[in-house]
Design goal:
heterodimer, A: alpha/beta, Rossmann fold, six-stranded mixed beta sheet, 12 helices, B: alpha/beta, 2 domains, eight-stranded mixed beta sheet, 36% helix, binds adenosine-5'-diphosphate, binds iron/sulfur cluster, binds magnesium ion, cell membrane (chain B)
Chain lengths: 319, 333
């Protein structure tokens, strides 16, 4: 535990090596290509290896009973220091994937290997805590992860205490450091979420996630609710943090322009399955799957016109 | 004559620490059959502008200025006249279609009752018309849709039902407030195409509120860019992209990541959007503008018209050439 407290960026990276290599290739044919072009990772292993992940939700009862395969045999790998974008429409299973990865949800089948360590499907407490240190999540709505009555500073120190037993003056110093890293001022430590703008709240959520000194950030639509001008700031910030801290990102978004800007590789999900994967340039410039093409052609851009596809609504009726 | 004309509309709401200004003098006009996009970041006053037209501004709000609908000031209408104007001349489509529908009524009841009330149709005529309308907004299985309750339909289907109801009486003016923001991109494309087509076919005017400049550009004849409770630029989509005349518009265009090319660093607008009530004297954008000069904070800066475009910037003429080119990341990073 103490090693982690002192875990400087170098130390964190150091842990990547052997462990990952041991299981490299476990993603098998499902791998999204281990080494992302421009992947910052020096050790070359995969930090995330997911294979055959399945998750079915059952809702309603009696004649209203429905099952949804939120994840249906999903496999992917994310190389150390790279960013994998996951795109798809709402309900395609992106968030379920994220929630299983960080341990908020249990898979029905399949395997998750994090930094070379297989993750139990229903982990014990200590294991869950260790995982929370390795992998942190940032949500679309920071209100979901920030307590209304808790100042930004105390939200961050909570994580410092929980994962690294850092308290007192040392914690205050770390809080200031973290706030600064996400472009806030030390005075913001005393602000309640309600006193901050949407962009500032999202920065606090990012600082809080970084406080655990994770190796992986899972970002679920983390910039979707931000205004354009603020979104650009946060996207730049996330790229900078990834480079400086040599973090690995799983970046969930519905926005292909954001994919282009942040990720080296991308997987396209539809109805719980990965329908296409590859380097961001490949997938966006020369999409192979009709669904990827539809997604791309639907994105507003200069010269774009909305188009009417015939008979698509059949699939939209949920009853 | 314009279908709608807003003349120096100002709005403030009561607040414990004194009245808060939300609109600082909005002037715009919409010609017959024209679609005007109202674009800006959250809190810039887009929705509040629409609410002054519908007269649904917050309770206790002080409103000044004129809102002329076909030449008549809706601000002065009595309750009965207002109801008639709303029913005959205006239709609203909001972000959340569920808010427009009664969760306990089937789609058929919602549409048929609306048609009977608005047009005095009998039940059979109204039912036939409702079915036609649903087909026109691209619903393939009309029976199934008619028999569904709102919770049984997806957001995209519901929004099409709302569009069908909105265009049914061919009102003079459609007010659409982020109608596709809650939808997936593929559904957005479909719903926008339908809205655009229905509006054109019926020769209706529209104000389309959105934060998405590209989306507005695709379906609007002109775009008005709002910042801190006022309009800073009006232009056609083509000219807005080719040669924006206001620094904020330029930076808004540049800071959006591109679908086709990755920027080493995204150009950013420093700081955060300000609220209308935080603006002091001079240009509201001065605190974030890379081109700001001491003169920019003196006095009120007028919206200067030039044909069908207008811009509110003290340095407009000087900057025209420079703003025609995208900002490099070094200029604003
Ligand atoms: N807790 C849950 N209970 C029931 N169904 C769920 C639950 N979470 C997700 N689902 C369903 O699983 C599918 C995938 O959802 P999700 O992972 O949230 O997709 P995305 O994040 O891509 O929008 C959807 O059909 C969704 O309604
Ligand atoms: S008036 Fe001055 S500060 Fe305002 S937009 Fe123009 S140049 Fe920038
Ligand atoms: Mg989601």
């Amino acid at each position: 535990m103490n090693d982690d407290v002192k875990g400087t960026d170098g130390g964190v990276i150091g842990r990547a090596g052997g462990g990952s290599r041991r299981t490299a290739g476990a993603g098998g044919s499902g791998g999204s290509g281990a080494k992302g072009p421009g992947g910052a990772g020096g050790s070359g292993g995969n930090v995330i290896e997911i294979s055959g992940l399945c998750k079915r939700f059952v809702t309603g009862r009696g004649s209203g009973r429905r099952t949804v395969d939120a994840l249906d045999d999903v496999s992917l790998t994310v190389a150390d220091g790279s960013c994998l974008a996951v795109v798809g429409e709402s309900g395609s299973g992106k968030s379920t994937l994220a929630r299983i990865l960080v341990g908020l949800e249990a898979a029905d089948a399949g395997e998750v290997v994090l930094a070379g360590r297989p993750v139990a499907r229903r982990p014990r407490r200590a294991e869950r805590r260790a995982r929370a240190r390795d992998i942190q999540m940032v949500f679309q709505d920071p209100n979901g992860s920030l307590n209304r009555r808790r100042t930004a500073g105390s939200a961050i120190s909570e994580v410092l205490a929980a994962h690294h037993r850092v308290t007192g003056a040392e914690a205050r110093r770390r809080v200031e450091e973290l706030l600064e890293q996400v472009g806030l001022r030390p005075a913001h430590a005393r602000s309640l979420p309600g006193e901050l703008s949407g962009g500032q709240r999202q920065r606090v959520a990012i600082a809080r996630a970084l406080a655990a000194e994770p190796r992986v950030l899972v970002l679920d639509e983390a910039v979707a609710a931000l205004d354009v001008s603020v979104q650009a700031q946060v996207l730049n910030l996330l790229s900078e943090i990834r480079r400086d801290r040599r973090l690995t990102y799983l970046f969930i978004t519905h926005d292909l322009s954001v994919v282009r800007q942040v990720s080296e590789e991308v997987v396209v999900m539809r109805q719980g399955r990965i329908v296409e994967r590859g380097s961001t340039t490949q997938v966006l410039d020369d999409p192979q799957h009709p669904y990827t093409r539809l997604l791309r052609d639907s994105a507003p851009r200069p010269g774009w016109r909305p188009v009417r596809a015939i008979g698509r609504d059949a699939a939209e009726v949920e009853a | 004559m314009s279908v709608l004309e807003l003349d120096d509309v100002r709005l403030a709401v009561p607040h414990p620490s004194g009245d808060r200004t939300l609109l600082r003098g909005v002037s715009l006009s919409v010609a017959p059959g024209e679609a005007l996009g109202l674009v800006g970041e959250s809190g810039s006053g887009k929705s509040m502008t629409l609410r002054t037209v519908l007269r649904t501004e917050p309770r206790g709000a002080h409103v000044a200025g004129r809102v002329l609908l076909d030449g008549r000031d809706v601000r002065g209408l009595g309750p009965a006249e207002l109801r008639r104007v709303r029913a005959e001349s205006l239709a609203m489509i909001s972000q959340d279609p569920r808010a427009a529908l009664n969760p306990l009524l089937r789609v058929s009841r919602f549409l048929v009752e609306g048609l009977c009330d608005a047009r005095g149709d009998d039940e059979r005529t109204a039912t036939r018309r409702a079915r036609d309308l649903l087909a026109q907004v691209g619903i393939a299985d009309v029976d199934r849709c008619m028999n569904s309750y709102p919770h049984q339909l997806s957001g995209g289907m519901l929004q099409r039902v709302v569009i069908a109801a909105a265009v049914a009486g061919s009102p003079r003016l459609l007010l659409a407030d982020e109608p596709t923001t809650a939808l997936d991109v593929t559904t957005q494309s479909e719903v926008m195409a339908i809205l655009d087509e229905q509006r054109r076919e019926r020769g209706m005017s529209m104000i389309f509120v959105t934060h998405d400049l590209e989306l507005a550009s695709a379906v609007c004849d002109r775009i008005a860019v709002m910042y801190a409770g006022e309009i800073v630029e009006i232009s056609t989509p083509e000219r807005l992209h080719a040669a924006p005349r206001h620094p904020y518009t330029r930076l808004l265009l540049d800071s959006r990541p591109s679908l086709t090319a990755r920027a080493p660093v995204l150009p950013v607008i420093p700081g955060r959007p300000v609220a209308a009530y935080e603006v002091g004297g001079g240009c509201a954008f001065a605190g974030r503008c890379p081109w700001s000069e001491p003169g920019c904070t003196d006095g009120e800066i007028p919206l200067v018209r030039d044909g069908d475009r207008a811009v509110r910037c003290a340095r407009e003429e000087e900057l025209a050439g420079e703003l025609a080119h995208a900002t490099g990341t070094e200029a604003t990073a």
